[in-house]
Amino acid sequence: MKYIAINFLQSILLIIVTPLFMGILKKFKAILRGYKGSSIFQVYYDYQKLFSKGRIRSSHSSFITQIGPILSLGASITAVFMIPTFFSSGETYLGSLFLIIFMMSIVKFLNTLIGLDCASTFGGMGTSRELFLSMLAEPVMFLTIMFLYFENKSFNIFTISFNNSSGAFYSIGHILAAISFFILLLTENARLPIDNPETHLELTMIHEAMILDLSGTDLAFVEMASQIKLMIFLTIFINLFMPFGAATTLGAVTILKASVIFFIKILVILFGISIIEISMTKSRLFRVPELLSAALAIAIAAISLNYFL
Residue 181: which residues within 8 A CB-CB, separation 6 or more? Predict the structure, then answer.
């Protein structure tokens, strides 16, 4: 019962601080670009503004646009409760990587339906691009999962995090798999150089094109789902490839120390993403397969090294 309670509380905490970390990411990028930038709490203000506005929907849209945003947010929140953050006991029936991928696929599926439902040219264009990239990213994801299974003999993220939490030694294959997953993280969350989340230029949009016709609470729900999805991927990355410092026993001091270490790791990764996003431009759509092919090759190399060494 104690394990269930701490898993529930850490998931709730992750959901609450997600907008804060998105604000910190924007603040990092602003500082690196040489200007002050907005408050790190600006994302909370943006949500307050969106929730105070009404919904304006296309006359061509159906019930999908009406229920899709809240279902997308619900799927993202559900996935949060399937992953560890700063505490992992190794004794849970949740945490199947395939189930987590399934929940993330539901979010993507609903977003693509929303993009198509509005009968907008931009929505259809963004949807086709999103699915094109997903088709290329899935082999990378499954090969990375297979590496983790060969390394830990488990598909459970709680078990993998628990086994690797000592952080005494990480093999070359482990590091290569982490690089491959990081490229996957950027792709699945529409970050540079794959997509630019800050632009609304019609010819280059991918994720933003699918939600271009949303407003008010619908837009707030989809944006929250996307931001939670990014935090889920960051948390998965930390717990699979760098879980050192995670709490494996219950104790106030242990939990507090593990939570501080976890949030520091999140900040370090966000700072790395901000450096990537201010130093690189968006790649042409047909250059992205080259990047994902490199990620696929790295994942294959990681599995090979794990097998032969």
Answer: 140, 144, 237, 240, 241
Strand partners, 96: 156
d(Cα 94, Cα 81) in Å, to the nearest integer?
A: 8
Domain count, the chain: 1
Strands of 84-193 (E only): list them: none
Q: What is the pLDDT of residues 161-199, one digit of tens each?
A: 988 886 656 889 999 999 999 999 999 998 988 988 877
Domain span holding position 211: 2-308
pLDDT digits (tens, 9 = 90+) for 250-299: 888 999 999 999 999 999 999 999 999 999 888 888 889 999 999 999 99
What does pTM read for this prediction? Answer: 0.95
